[in-house]
Write a structure and sequence with these properties.
Chain lengths: 309, 503
C-alpha cells in the first residue's frame, strides 16, 4: 500500500512539473496585465528546441536553457502584437499557439524518433531521498523539478515582497496610474511576457528532455491549456499554483496507476476533464462567494495601455 | 507683488493643436513660488490641455517652458515630476487594489520596500501637511477625499514643489473642500506653488492668491485675487458675458407624495456604512435634496432607490403601490427617471450616437414591435438638441465627443422626455461649467412644476439654491430634514453634515 502511494505520488509530482513551470510563467505575465493564450505553442517550441539543442551540444544545461529561451522569444512576438501594436490579446495568443503547433510539426519532422541527445534523469538528493514515502515522492525527481521547487517561493517573493513585484502587480491593475507614477508600463509588460515565455519554454523542455524524452508532434497534449486554467485556479498566486499543478499531476498519475494495475475505477477521459471542471468551480467560488475581498484577477488583464487613453 | 523675485515658472507663448482645433493658442503665464493660482475657464477653454503640457503628458507644438529660469522640455509625466512638477488628475491615478503605502512608493527606478519605515515616513508627511489617511488601508476602501490626500502625499513624497490640481473639488463635499483648502494654505506656507483648475467662483475667492482666466484656448486675463471685487466680475471674465448667479425660483404648489420611503435599510458594506432607518417622502412640486459628506450612505441609498442595488429592509411606496424591500427592484420601470452621477458610463454609451443614446432608456416609445422607428428617433433627438442647446457634433456623431455639460443636457433631455412622476438627479452639475450648470438648474426647477424631483448632491450651494427641503445624511442615517426656506444659516446644515445635531 505504501509502495503504491509512493509510486502514485512520485508520478504525480513528475507529471505536474511542466504545468507548474508554465503556470508560474503565465502568472507573472498575467499579473502585469498581459494575457498570453499561446502557452501551448510556446511549450511546443521549447520542447523542440530543447531536443534540438541537446542533439547538437549534448549538454543538458544548454538544452534546457535553449528550450526556455525559445519560449521567451516566441512570447516577445506576442508582446509586440499585444503591447506595442495593441492588438486583441486573445487573438494574438491563439495565433501564437497555432503558430507554435504548425511550426514545430514542420520543423521537427527530422527529429521524430531520434534520441534526444541528453536526458534529465531522476537525481536523488542524498539524505532527503531516503526519507520514507516523502523522499520517494519529492526528492527522486529531475533537476528541473528541483528548480520548480525553488521558483515557486521565488516568484511569490518577487511579486509580493519586492518593489519590482509592486510595479508588476500595479501594471496589471491600473496602467494609467502606473504611467503617471513615472514607470514604463510597456517595459514591465514586455519583461513579464518574456518571463512567461521562459516558463512555458522550460516546461516544454522538461517534457522533451525528462518526462518523455525525445520529440513527438504535439507532445504537450494540451498541458499549456491546463496551465492557463491553473493560473485562474491558483487565483494568480504562485504558492497556490502548486496545489493546482499537483492536482493535475495526481489525476495523470491515477490514469497510469489504473493502467498499471489493469482496473479503471474512473474512466481516463473523466480524469482528463477534471482540471478544467475544478477551474470553473474555483472561478465560481471566487466570483460569487467572496465578493470583492478575494482576488479575482488583475483588473487590467488583457487591456493594452496607451497614454492617450 | 514684488518684481525682484524671479518667477518659479514661466510659460512662453505655448500652442497646442489637435487636428484643426487650437486647444491652446499662444498662452503665456508667469508664476511665483509660494502662491496659490486659480485657473478658470469654461469647459473646453483649454485649461486641462495647458496643465497636461505643464505636467509632461503632452508636448507643445510651439512655445517653451522655463522652470526657475531654465528652459525645460518634458517628454513624460515622470520627467516633469523629476523636475518638481506634479499633477493630481481628476481621475485619480491610484491602483485601487494596492494599499496607500504601496501607491505612494510606486514609481520609476528601484523601489525598496521596508514596510514599517515607509509607513512611518508617510505618517510624518501626512502629519506635517494635515493629510489624515491611514497608510495601511487599501485604496478601494477610501473615500474620494482620502484618495485625493493620497495623491497629494504621492507628490510630496516625490518632492514636488509645483502641484497642479485638475478640478480638485469636483468630487468633494463642503467639509472636505475646506480641508483641502487648509492643505493648500499649508503647502503655500512651505513655499510650494499651487495651480488649481476650477469652475466654482466662490472657491477662487476663498483660497486663491492669483487668478488666470482662459477662454477658447487663450489666456484672457491674469490678476491678483484681491483685485476682484465680486463673483460677477469673475463670471463675466470667464464667460465673456453676464451670468445670472441668483437662481430664480418660481413658487410651485406642493402636491401629494410621489414616493414615500419608510424604514429603508441597505445591505451591510465591507468597510463603509450602508444606510438604515431612512424615512422621507418626495412630493409633486418640490425638489427634495439628500446631501452629506461623501461616503455617508447617500450613494448606496440613491442606487437602491433607482433599482440598481438591493434593499435589505423597509418599504417604498410609489405610484399607489407599496413595495417591500425585496420587491422594489422588480417593480415596473415606468414613472421614474434617473440621472446618474457617472454620466460617461452609467448615463450614456460614448461610442453610440446621440440618437442611439437618446432612445436608449425609452426604446418602447420609438418602436412598433421589433423595429426602431429611426426617423422618429432622429426627429425627437434633433428637437431635444435644439431645445436644450446641446452643442458639439451632429446627432449621428458619437456621444463620447460631447463635453460634460452637453452630455448631461442630452441625458437630462432624454429622461425628462419620459415624463416621469419622479426624477432622481444624482450630482447633476458635478464638473460642469457655469453656463451648463445654470441650464441644468433651470431644467430641474422647471421639472418640479410637473413632477417630484429627488436630488442627491454634495454641493451645498446647489442644495440651497434649488431645494425646497434638504435631508442631511451622516453615517447612513438621515439626521434631519430641514426646510430650505426656513434655514437662513448654512451653518446648521454644515454641522449636521459633520454629524453634530444642534438643539
Amino acid at each position: 500500500m505504501m509502495e503504491d502511494l509512493a509510486f502514485i505520488g512520485q508520478i504525480a509530482v513528475k507529471s505536474s512539473i511542466a504545468v507548474l513551470l508554465a503556470t508560474l510563467g503565465e502568472i507573472v505575465a498575467e499579473r502585469s496585465g498581459v494575457l498570453n493564450l499561446g502557452v501551448e505553442g510556446m511549450m511546443l517550441v521549447g520542447a523542440l528546441c530543447g531536443v534540438a539543442a541537446g542533439v547538437a551540444t549534448g549538454n543538458p544545461v544548454i538544452a534546457a536553457a535553449a528550450g526556455a529561451l525559445a519560449g521567451g522569444l516566441l512570447a516577445l512576438v506576442h508582446g509586440f502584437f499585444a503591447i506595442t501594436l495593441r492588438v486583441n490579446q486573445v487573438l494574438s495568443g491563439l495565433a501564437l499557439t497555432i503558430l507554435g503547433m504548425g511550426m514545430t510539426s514542420f520543423v521537427g519532422r527530422p527529429l521524430i524518433g531520434t534520441p534526444p541527445g541528453v536526458r534529465l534523469r531522476a537525481l536523488p538528493i542524498p539524505g532527503l531521498a531516503d526519507i520514507p514515502v516523502i523522499g520517494d515522492i519529492l526528492f527522486r525527481q529531475s533537476a528541473l523539478a528541483y528548480l520548480a521547487y525553488i521558483l515557486v517561493p521565488l516568484c511569490w517573493f518577487v511579486l509580493f515582497r519586492t518593489g519590482t513585484g509592486l510595479k508588476i502587480r500595479a501594471a496589471g491593475e491600473d496602467a494609467a496610474a502606473v504611467d503617471a507614477a513615472g514607470i514604463d508600463v510597456n517595459r514591465i509588460r514586455y519583461g513579464c511576457t518574456f518571463v512567461g515565455g521562459l516558463g512555458a519554454g522550460l516546461a516544454g523542455a522538461y517534457l522533451s528532455l525528462s518526462y518523455t524524452p525525445g520529440w513527438k508532434e504535439s507532445m504537450t497534449g494540451g498541458q499549456g491549456w491546463v496551465a492557463i486554467a491553473m493560473v485562474i485556479f491558483a487565483t494568480w498566486n504562485p504558492l497556490r499554483a502548486v496545489i493546482g499543478a499537483f492536482l493535475f499531476g495526481g489525476l495523470t498519475a491515477l490514469q497510469f496507476y489504473f493502467q498499471a494495475v489493469g482496473i479503471e475505477l474512473i474512466p481516463a477521459y473523466i480524469l482528463k476533464m477534471l482540471p478544467y471542471v475544478l477551474t470553473i468551480v474555483v472561478m465560481i467560488v471566487v466570483n460569487a462567494g467572496m465578493g470583492r475581498r478575494r482576488f479575482s484577477g488583475p483588473a487590467a488583464l488583457g487591456i493594452p495601455f496607451s497614454r492617450e487613453g | 507683488m514684488t518684481v525682484s523675485v524671479p518667477p518659479v515658472l514661466t510659460l512662453n507663448s505655448l500652442s497646442k493643436r489637435f487636428g484643426d482645433v487650437y486647444a491652446n493658442r499662444a498662452v503665456s503665464w508667469t508664476l511665483q513660488a509660494g502662491r496659490i493660482y486659480a485657473l478658470l475657464g469654461e469647459n473646453g477653454a483649454g485649461k486641462s490641455t495647458l496643465m497636461s503640457i505643464l505636467s509632461g503628458r503632452y508636448q507643445p507644438d510651439s512655445g517653451g517652458i522655463q522652470l526657475k529660469g531654465r528652459p525645460v522640455h518634458f517628454q513624460s509625466p515622470a520627467q516633469a515630476l523629476e523636475m518638481g512638477i506634479g499633477m493630481v488628475y481628476q481621475r485619480f491615478m491610484l491602483v485601487d487594489s494596492l494599499t496607500v503605502t504601496e501607491n505612494i512608493l510606486l514609481r520609476g527606478g528601484p523601489i525598496h520596500l521596508r514596510a514599517n519605515q515607509d509607513i512611518r515616513h508617510i505618517r510624518e508627511l501626512a502629519e506635517r501637511y494635515g493629510l489624515a489617511v491611514k497608510p495601511e488601508m487599501t485604496v478601494r476602501d477610501l473615500s474620494m477625499g482620502e484618495r485625493q490626500r493620497v495623491e497629494i502625499l504621492k507628490l510630496l513624497h516625490r518632492r514636488a514643489d509645483i502641484l497642479i490640481f485638475d478640478e480638485p473639488t469636483a468630487v468633494l463635499t463642503h467639509t472636505e473642500i475646506e480641508g483641502l483648502f487648509a492643505v493648500f494654505r499649508r503647502l503655500r506656507a512651505e513655499g510650494k506653488t499651487i495651480i488649481f483648475i476650477t469652475h466654482k467662483l466662490e472657491e477662487v475667492m476663498a483660497v486663491a492668491d492669483d487668478i488666470a482666466v482662459m477662454r477658447r484656448g487663450r489666456m484672457v486675463s491674469q490678476l491678483p485675487a484681491d483685485k476682484v471685487r465680486s463673483r460677477h466680475d469673475l463670471a463675466r471674465l470667464m464667460v465673456g458675458r453676464e451670468v445670472i448667479l441668483n437662481v430664480d425660483k418660481p413658487p410651485v404648489t406642493v402636491g401629494d407624495p410621489v414616493m414615500t420611503a419608510s424604514g429603508l435599510t441597505g445591505p451591510a458594506g465591507t468597510s463603509r456604512p450602508a444606510f438604515q432607518d431612512i424615512d422621507f417622502d418626495v412630493r409633486r412640486g418640490e425638489i427634495f435634496t439628500i446631501t452629506g459628506v461623501a461616503g455617508n450612505g447617500q450613494e448606496a441609498l440613491v442606487a437602491a432607490l433607482a433599482g440598481l442595488a438591493p434593499l435589505d429592509g423597509g418599504t417604498v411606496t410609489f405610484g399607489n403601490h407599496t413595495y417591500s424591500a425585496a420587491r422594489w427592484r422588480q417593480r415596473p420601470a415606468s414613472g421614474m427617471a434617473y440621472i446618474p452621477e457617472d454620466r460617461d458610463r452609467t448615463g450614456s454609451i460614448g461610442a453610440f450616437s446621440l440618437v442611439e443614446n437618446y432612445i436608449l432608456t425609452q426604446l418602447n416609445a420609438f418602436g412598433r414591435s421589433f423595429l426602431v422607428d429611426r426617423h422618429q428617433a432622429e426627429q425627437k433627438t434633433a428637437e431635444a438638441v435644439a431645445r436644450f442647446q446641446i452643442r458639439g457634433g451632429g446627432i449621428l456623431g458619437p456621444a463620447g465627443h460631447l463635453s460634460g455639460g452637453n452630455l448631461q443636457k442630452l441625458i437630462l433631455a432624454r429622461e425628462l422626455s419620459r415624463r416621469p412622476d419622479l426624477l432622481i438627479a444624482e450630482q447633476p452639475t458635478q464638473g460642469l461649467d457655469v453656463q451648463a450648470t445654470e441650464d441644468v438648474w433651470q431644467a430641474l426647477l422647471r421639472q418640479r412644476k410637473t413632477s417630484a424631483v429627488l436630488m442627491v448632491t454634495g454641493d451645498l450651494k446647489e442644495a440651497l439654491s434649488l431645494s425646497d427641503r434638504i435631508a442631511v445624511m451622516f453615517r447612513g442615517r438621515i439626521l434631519d430634514i430641514v426646510s430650505a426656506r426656513d434655514t437662513a444659516d448654512i451653518d446648521r446644515i454644515k454641522l449636521l453634515m459633520a454629524g453634530i445635531e444642534a438643539h
